[in-house]
Amino acid sequence: MLTGAGPLRNAATLLGSALNSGVTIDLASGTATDGTNTVSWDPGVIEGALGGFGNDTISGNADENNVRGHEGADVLDVSGDPPTETEGWIDRADCGNDTDADRVTIDEADTTANCDSEDTITVVPRATVNSASAPWH
Q1: What is the pLDDT of residues 70-112, one digit of tens each?
Q2: For residue 135, which of 80, 55, 73 has the smallest C-alpha distance?
Q3: What topology is assigned to 3-127 in CATH?
Q4: So where are the chain's domains?
Q5: Measuring CA to CA, which residue among 37, 32, 71, 62 is closest to residue 49?
Q6: What predicted TM-score, i.e. pTM, was given to this entire model?
């Protein structure tokens, strides 16, 4: 269930594309804001996000994420997957077709990034945790 107001209110895949300012979307905490309006939802319900025309920050969650920065110099992070390979989860980060320098963080397995030469992609190893105590278990 989404709660909040403004243009972010109604979203299945969270869309910030109607916004000209930057949007901050955190799929793990279940929040999104454009600086004026804030939306919240039960974490884990939404797995995808599309940024707006400003400089966006989009962070994924432990589920399979599909995020796209759209326009602006965006920061995308879909590196929060569980350390197990048995799930087969694949995150996708798309920088968009703009010429702004985006920054993307992905994990080393089951992740794809579609970015251009002006963008920076950082690949990090998956975390090693006790899966019995992990939040996605």
Answers
A1: 888 999 998 866 655 445 567 888 888 888 889 998 877 667 7
A2: 80
A3: Alkaline Protease, subunit P, domain 1 (2.150.10)
A4: 3-127
A5: 32
A6: 0.76
Query: What does DSSP say about strands 91-94 and 14-15: parallel, antiparallel, or unpaired?
Result: unpaired
Q: Which pair of tokens denotes residue 116?
A: 């251009």
Residue type present at position 14: L
The strand ranges marked E within the chain are 3-4, 14-15, 24-26, 31-33, 38-40, 48-50, 57-59, 66-68, 75-77, 91-94, 103-107, 111-114, 120-124
Q: Please state, in angstroms and rounded to a whole number, the distance separating the CA atoms of residues 62 and 80.
A: 5
pLDDT digits (tens, 9 = 90+) for 21-66: 788 999 899 998 888 888 888 887 788 888 888 899 999 888 788 8
Amino acid (one-letter) located at 81: D
Neighbours of 115 (CB within 10 A): 19
d(CA 13, CA 90): 16
